[in-house]
Predict the structure.
Amino acid sequence: MLGQPQAVGYSGPTFIAIRSGKHSSSTANTHAQDFETLLELEEFRPLAKTDHGLVKPVVIMTVDGGPDENPRYQKVIGFAIQHFKRHDLDALFIATNAPGRSAYNRVERRMAPLSRELAGLILPHDHFGSHLDERGITIDEQLERYNFEFAGNVLAEVWSSMEIDGYNVTAKYVEADEQDVPEFPDIKWYSEHVRESQYLLQIVKCKNTECCRPRSGLFRLLDNRFLPPPAKVKQTVDDLVLDEGGQFLDLPVNLALRLKGKVRPVRVAARHANELMCIIQNLEHQDVEWLDESDVDIPKSDESEQTHNTEQQSNVIDNLESWIQRRSAVILSGRRRAASEVRIHLNFIYNTRTSAAPPQYIRFRPERRPVSGRACSVSES
C-alpha cells in the first residue's frame, strides 16, 4: 500500500520447484506452472494477493535471459498473456537482465545458502530398487521415476526446513507434466495491449471500458499506460535536455518530466514503409531493431547514404548502362557491410546475341524458380 514502508522489501519467502532433469526440463511451460503454484502457497499470500483473495493487479517479474524465460520469445509472451487474462491484471511487466548481468538477479542470491545445506548430503538413487543394469543403462523407466521422485522429496524436505533472511523456504517435487501452449491473441488485441522491447515486456489494460476495467490507480501514474523508455538527461543553462553524456533518470522523475526523445542509431540498414531497420550500439555489442521513422534521430545529409529502400522498386529500366553501374556500386558496398546489415545480391545476365544494339528499356519479370545461372528473365520491348 502507498506510504507503508513494509510494502517494498529486498527479501521475502522462497519457493523452489524440484524436477527430474531426465524426465523434465526448464521451459516457458514449467515456469508458468510454477507461477500458478506460487500464487496458491500460504507463505506468499500476503505478498501476492489482496485482502479479498485476488491476485494483486500489478505484477513485475525479473528473469534471466535464457530462451525458457526471456520475454522476447513467443511462448513466454503467450504464457504471460495467459496470466494477464486469467488473473485480471492491470499490468504485467517482465524484465530481463542484459548479457553478463544475470548475477544481479535477486534469485541468484538464494543459491549460496541453498548450496550450503547440500554439503555432505547424499541422495539415494535406488531407494525402491536399482533401475540400472551392470553398464549403468536404465532398464526400468517406471522404477526410475519412483526413485527420482523419492530423492526429490528428500531434497525438498531438507530445503523446506530452512529460513533465509527470516523468511520460510518452500520446496516441492513436481512431476513432469506439460500443459498445452495457450493460443496467441489476434493482432488487434496484441497491438493494443502489448509492448515489446529488448529487455522488457509490457502487457497493460487498454482504455476501452468494454474490453478492460482497471482495478487500481496505476493509470493515474502512467498517462500513456506503458512505462517510458530510459532516458539520459543533461542539465544545461536553459533547460533539461536529452543527451548521451547525461545521466539516466529515476522512473518517477522520468514520468514527471514526460520527456520524449528519439533513438540515434549507429546507422540505418534498411527502410520499409514508415519503419527503419536501425543498428543500435548496446554496451559491447550491437542490436538490430525495426523502429518507426518518427522515433529515429538521423541527420538528413546521411539519410540517403545510410538507408536502402527494401520495398519493391519499379520494374522499368530507362538506361541500362547507368543501371548496371549503380547496382554494381550497391553490391560492392553491400559486401563490405557487417553481417547484421541488409545485403543486396543481384545476378544479371543480358544476352547481346539477340540484338545488335541494346533496347531502349528492359522489363524484368522475376521467375518463381530461377534456372541455373539466372536470377531473372529479360525480354525486350
Q: What stands out?
A: The radius of gyration is 29 Å. The chain is about 25% helix and 20% strand. The first helix runs from residue 28 to 40.
